[in-house]
Amino acid sequence: MSQNAYVPQVKASDPWPDSPPAEICSNSSVLDGPTSAPSGAVTVAAGDNSAVNFSTADTTYYFAAGTHTLGSGAFSQIQPGNGSTFIGAPGAVLDGQNVNKYAFVGSNSNVTIKYLTIQHFNPGQNEGAVNQNANSDWTVEYNTIQNNTPGAGIMIGTNNNVSYNCITENGQLGFDAYTTTDVDSLTGGPSNITLNNNEISYNDTYNWESVQPGCGCTGGGKFWRVHNATVDNNYVHNNYNAGLWADTDNDGFQIENNYISDNFGVGIWYEISYNALIQNNNFVNNAWGAGANNPGFPTSAIYL
Is the residue at 22 inside a domain? Predict the structure, then answer.
């Protein structure tokens, strides 16, 4: 066994959730940010923010209520500085106008994004509106990430914490955990990911499996060559392919206490991957669509 190999620690058994543990979408008690700017923050007024310098390190930006845009170019976007924080007031919306490709890009780490609605960006296939470069040490919490197409809502990199978000109605995937930078030596991808208490729903609105048959690239979210991930207490439902999909050389997963329901495909797909603890999840009405379209191949609630 490799010295880096992960051995899951089995916990005392708890019952699986009888009801969704993370009903986040439209839950203002979770998604609404502070009504006034934190001390020392730069307040960003609603409207066209293309002239704002969002790249200053160790700076907090507070988005006032209303709709914020970034300019008219495909690559009009936010490139955060190291250690920067972006916080939305109640009703703050960052809108890509179906023109801008990405909301947040760049190569900096220790970025925090909270309490924003991030919508109508146009990332391409296998790209994401938030953290397009899958940078390390990002925290993305209490956001609504929706209607970004044809790609994913968010890319997830090493040491990322993605929690308490509504991730819904994105074109390809809700999230995509894959990177070619800052890769783990064991798997060749990102490592140490936390994904918890999110509602992940109705993703793959672009219907990539029809546009590109057999792409195997859609659903609630996908992990690729990830080393060590904690995936717990999420509500994953009504995605138009698999719910949660770990595809190829993933290692060291703990997938627990999730409520996974009404996905077109498999609820959890742990494919060509290793060393996982998968327990106390509740599966309800998954794979009816994929099973009917794929006779002769096992299409189940969970596929290993």
Answer: no
- Contact call for residues 267 and 215 (beta carbons, < 8 A): no
300 within a domain of the structure (yes/no): no
Q: Which domain range does residue 242 map to?
A: 28-294
As a whole number of angstroms, the distance between CA 86 and CA 65 comes to: 13
Residue with tokens 């996908």: 222
For residue 229, which of 195, 259, 267 has the smallest C-alpha distance?
195
Tokens of 242: 């698999």
pLDDT digits (tens, 9 = 90+) for 237-296: 999 999 999 999 999 999 999 999 999 999 999 999 999 999 999 999 999 998 888 877
Measured CA distances, 181 to 75, 157, 189, 192 (Å): 21, 9, 8, 14
Task: Output the pTM of the full model.
Answer: 0.94
* Chain segment 149-170, per-residue pLDDT in tens: 999 999 999 999 999 999 999 9
Q: How high is the pLDDT of residue 9? A: 53
Decide if 159 contacts 139 (C-beta within 8 A).
no
Alpha-carbon distance 158 to 135, whole Å?
A: 7
